[in-house]
């Protein structure tokens, strides 16, 4: 395992990302990771706030269009995240903080899928809040907050 | 000019509040977390409203989309408060940092743009006079908003790389 992590880190791409003085290497990838975070967590927050009772005048049906936006944020961060991991594989691959972050993200994605099924599963026309959707929305907001907590904490390990 | 700024940074760094920010355990990372969460709320809620202005999700009445805006402002307040904390705690990292000034420039653009929108269109939106669509000027405002907030993120992220802030 350690060999694999070291090989990743010392690969041409890993070395370039870590050591290139260009702002298009590490700085650009980190910036994309921050923007993706804003889009994913922010889009999620809009839906969650609505399901938790704020902005009740907003009909739920058109908010389903937020999902593609969130997925864009998610994939930008999955790809930029893999790149950041490759550049620092022996550190990130061996710390419980990173493993915790991955679990949090996995649970966050599952919650998002569950949320979509609960609210929109019976067709857009009958998109409704339920006690379940409220719980899922609160959990989802908390999980993405924790993803930020563990992500920031990564800078200190 | 630079000398004055340096004197100011040295003075600020010597204040007890600046020292308190630096020596309080975990305060800096806590502020980073809140800065990022505030940024997400702002980008999410303001971005949602901007997309609505641009003509997406037209079945959301404009006045309804507007009711979430206090959350964007709360996100901004959170990011601004923690941002000021960074500046007070380590002013020397920002005072000679070109990325910092470009970030502040885009912050000013984004805020003036938002204030202009409120002054001109808020009443019309709250009176439900623009429920489906508005003048094309609001689409320009929405674009300026999205672009300038993303530049704020970009130049914020560049702080450690162009000017060596952490």
Write the SSE topology.
The complex is a heterodimer of chains A (157) and B (166).
Chain A: H1 2-10, H2 12-19, H3 26-51, H4 66-87, H5 89-92, H6 96-120, H7 131-153
Helix pairs in contact in A: 2-4, 3-4, 3-7, 6-7
Chain B: H1 2-14, H2 16-23, H3 27-54, H4 62-66, H5 69-89, H6 92-95, H7 98-126, H8 137-162
Helix pairs in contact in B: 2-5, 3-5, 3-8, 7-8
How would you portray this structure in words?
The complex is a heterodimer of chains A (157) and B (166). Chain A is mainly alpha-helical and 157 residues long. Chain A has one domain. Chain A is built from 7 helices and no strands. Chain A is elongated, with a radius of gyration of 18 Å. The two termini of chain A are 20 Å apart. Chain B is mainly α and 166 residues long. The mean pLDDT of chain B is 95. The two termini of chain B are 24 Å apart. Chain B is built from 8 helices and no strands. The chains are: A mainly alpha (157), B mainly alpha (166).
């Amino acid at each position: 395992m350690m060999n694999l992590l070291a090989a990743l880190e010392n690969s041409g791409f890993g070395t370039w990302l870590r050591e290139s003085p260009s702002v298009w290497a590490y700085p650009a990838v980190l910036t994309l990771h921050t923007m993706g975070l804003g889009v994913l967590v922010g889009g999620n927050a809009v839906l969650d706030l609505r399901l938790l009772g704020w902005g009740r005048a907003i009909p739920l049906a058109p908010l389903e269009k937020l999902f593609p936006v969130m997925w864009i944020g998610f994939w930008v961060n999955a790809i930029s995240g893999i790149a950041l991991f490759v550049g620092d594989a022996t550190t990130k691959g061996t710390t419980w903080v990173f493993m915790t972050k991955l679990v949090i993200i996995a649970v966050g994605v599952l919650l998002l899928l569950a949320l979509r099924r609960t609210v929109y599963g019976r067709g857009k026309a009958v998109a409704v809040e339920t006690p379940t959707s409220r719980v899922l929305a609160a959990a989802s907001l908390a999980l993405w907050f924790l993803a930020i907590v563990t992500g920031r904490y990564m800078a200190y390990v | 000019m630079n000398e004055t700024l340096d004197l100011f940074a040295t003075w600020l760094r010597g204040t007890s509040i600046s020292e308190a920010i630096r020596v309080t355990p975990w305060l800096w990372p806590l502020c980073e977390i809140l800065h990022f969460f505030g940024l997400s709320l702002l980008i999410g809620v303001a971005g949602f409203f901007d997309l609505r202005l641009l003509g997406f999700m037209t079945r959301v009445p404009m006045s309804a989309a507007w009711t979430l805006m206090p959350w964007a402002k709360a996100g901004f307040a959170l990011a601004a408060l923690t941002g000021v904390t960074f500046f007070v705690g380590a002013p020397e990292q920002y005072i000679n940092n070109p990325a910092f000034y470009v970030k502040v420039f885009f912050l000013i653009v984004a805020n003036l743009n938002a204030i202009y929108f409120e002054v001109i269109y808020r009443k019309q939106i709250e009176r439900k006079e623009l429920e489906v669509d508005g003048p094309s000027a609001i689409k320009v405002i929405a674009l300026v908003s999205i672009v300038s907030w993303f530049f704020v993120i970009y130049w914020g992220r560049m702080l450690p790389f162009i000017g060596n802030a952490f």
